[in-house]
Structures are given as structure tokens and as C-alpha cells.
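TODO from last week: model CHAT domain-containing protein.
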Amino acid sequence: MEKLVVLSFGNGDVVNGFASVRAQLWDADRAYPIQVTGGLPGAPELPSLYRQWQLLYLALHHRLGIPSRIKIKAADVTNVSEMEFNQFCQRLSDQINYWLSSAAFRPIDQQLRTWLNASDEVRIIIETNDSYLRQLPWHLWHFFAAYPHAEVALSLLNYQRSRKSSPIKHTAKKARILAILGDSQDIDVHRDRSYLEQLSTQAEIHFLVEPKREELNHQLWQGWDLLFFAGHSTTQETGFLRINPMENLSLEQLRWALNHAIANGLKLAIFNSCDGLGLAQSLADLQIPQVIVMREPVPDVVAQAFLKHFLAAFVSGRSLYTSVREARERLQRMEGTYPCASWLPVICQNPAEVPIRWEEWGAAGREKERGQDRTAEEKQARDTQPATHSTSQNSKPKVHNLKSKIFPVLLSSVMVTTLVMGMRYVGGLQAWELQAFDQLMRSRPEEPQDSRLLIVTITEDDFQLPEQQQRQGSLSDLALAN
């Protein structure tokens, strides 16, 4: 069974802690979620620990001469051995789990384990605006070891459904993919292309090789289901793509084209490039449904292996989350050569949107989505339209049916009322009425003597009193006084 868990981290940050953390569990059998609240103490050592891990990760890849899809600055690297790095990875994992096992967070952990079954397919969304919390490798949480079909995604605290416009009509009954192959200096993006080309029988794919900004902007306005990028990227407060050897573009520079693409049905963006959390946050501001990025610099062969395994699982019918977890875990076999390869892929989700499946793409899927949008609009119009007397031909049968149902009821009511009034007028109901009245009087409870009542009795002796001899009629005052 598919279930959704939303962990919302409101006010606070990793350094100072979160006074309130809310967990909501959604499933198909309930209209409203199950909810439990907890908290997390401050963990000021975690951000610095993760930053140290980042530096050691860069240093190790630099020392091993591993081709990466990011330009590594020499000032960021130091000498490190694989053993030291592995020990540091274990230390980071232990510190994260120690933090998540704190007493304030324990009610959430315990309730999740009570609600969920190991066989459930679980989407866990981390809602937060804290950049340090978004950077943490959440898959290291021991919770995921007990739930093999669960995968984590990141989200901002504020989100809404993407605005839909009148989509561009396409006759192809296939998914439409725009694949951007950016600057390929020192990396091999042609392997990415070969994996995508294997989908040519199931998808309509348009490749842009080291495009100019104008060409990329133009293509984004044509309407796509999936946006793919392979090449060099980096995050410097915001995400940048190196689309060709001469141009670095931020997503802000493509904002209107991306807005139009999302409004026309863009559901998923995959950035098979380095340091993609900045790219994901920029796209989250545009309300894109789903994004898959690499959280850190990614070796070339690791990026290619992830794409290969993800596409194989996703196209075969598995869900987006299951496909990402399967592809991510299959990278673990490469960690002897490429440390922490399975740490890199991460989903960024707009919780207001339902995750897409491969079979929902194509003409049939787009028509289904348009039908759902029309249905929602028609329902809203019906709910907001004021009630009026309809004069259309379609309303006449409804009026006729209403009359045919009301007339027998009115006739029966008049006949019964006339019959009852007639029998009562001629006395036919009198015996029953008297019997019922007598029964009601007998049913009254016995009333005790009221002490507030005074009974005065007058006998013949009272009239024989001397005071009464000369008086006629009522008793004299003297006789009453005696």
C-alpha cells in the first residue's frame, strides 16, 4: 500500500533546534491524516560536521583523480585517506541518528513505526526552509533500514499547485523529453545520451547539445513532460548550469520559459550534474512537481549509472520514489572506487502535486489531465453559479419529473385530512377520544395533600350559636372567630 509521511519542521534550525515538529500520515483509506507532534533539540555540531565531510569528500575525489561534473577549487581540498574518510562517514551517520533518537523526537519515530508496515511503499517528505537540514543525508536515518520501500524527498515549507495554462497540443502518443547536454569538458555526456536514446520507441526526445541561451529558451516554450540536463553545474547561493563552454546560466535567467514549461505540463526535471540542491530550490519557487538532483559533486560514471538504473526501473512501471531508491542503492557497489556514491541522488517534491508515473505520460496522459482540469473547473463553476430558473430545453424534463413526484403526495395528504375531519364532525372518533382522555387522567400520578391549603367547614351547630340568633344568611364574624 502506498502511504505518504510529511515531516514538517517549522520555526527553528539545526543549530538551535525545532520546538515543534509535525508528522502527518496520509493513505488512501482516510480523508484526513493521522498526526503526531514532537520536537528536536539543537545540534550545533551537525552543520560543521557536514561541512568537514564535504571538504573530505572533495579532497578524496581530487586525490583519486575521479572525473567530476563540477570544477573543484584547489583551495577546498586537503590530503585525506580512504580509511579516514570512511571513519568520518560513520561518525556523521552516528551523529545524525543520535540526534533523531532524542526524547523530543521519539513520539514521532515510535508512531511512524506503529502506523507503517515493512511492505508499505512510503514517501517521506521533509518540509523545511533550513539549508543545513536540507543538506543532511536523510537516507542514513535507521528508520529507512526497517522500511525497504520508503524513500525521502525534500520540500520547502510553502508551496502550491502549479498553474496550468492551455497546453500545447501534440499528436505524438509518447512522453516528450527535452534533453540538454551542456559543457562536456572532462566528462562524457554521450553516455547519458545513449541511455536516453534507448527510450526512443516510448518517448519523443529532442537533444540540445551545448545550446546557446536563445535556443534553450525557445525550446522550453514548446511543451515537455520531462526536462533532463547533463553537464557541469554548481550552487553559489543559487544554482547555475554551464550550458556551453562560454555560458553559465542561473535558473532565474530562464524563469519565464520555465514558468511556461511547467504550466504546459512539465512534471519532472532531472539534473544529472553536481551540487544540485540550489537548482532544486530555484525550481521549487516555480512550483515544479518533482526534481531529481545530486546533492554534491558527482563522478561522471556514477551519474551515468544512476541514470541507467533509474530509467530502467521507472519505465518498467515502478513509482518515481521506488525507482530512485532502487537506482541509488545500486550505486553502493561502486563505493569501493567512488566513496558515498549512494548518498548523492535526492528527490525534491512539491507536496501539492501527485508524483508522476511513466505510463501517465503521452497523449493519453495529457488528455486525462486536461479532462481532470476541465472537471474541476466545471465543478467550481457549478458551485459558484447562483440559482436561477432555467429556461433551457434540458431543464424541462427535470421540472416535469418534479411535478409528477409532488402531485401524488399532495393528493394523498388532502384525502387523508378530509377523511379525518369528516369522521370527527359526525362523532365517529368521540368514543376513542373519551377513552384516550380517561386513560390520560388515570395515568396522572397521585397528588399528596398541599399544606398550603386551609379548609374551613360550617356545620348546623355553628348556626345555633347565640351570636347567630339574630342574623340571617352567612355566619357572623363572632361565630367565625369561635
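Done. DSSP finds 16 helices and 15 strands in the chain.
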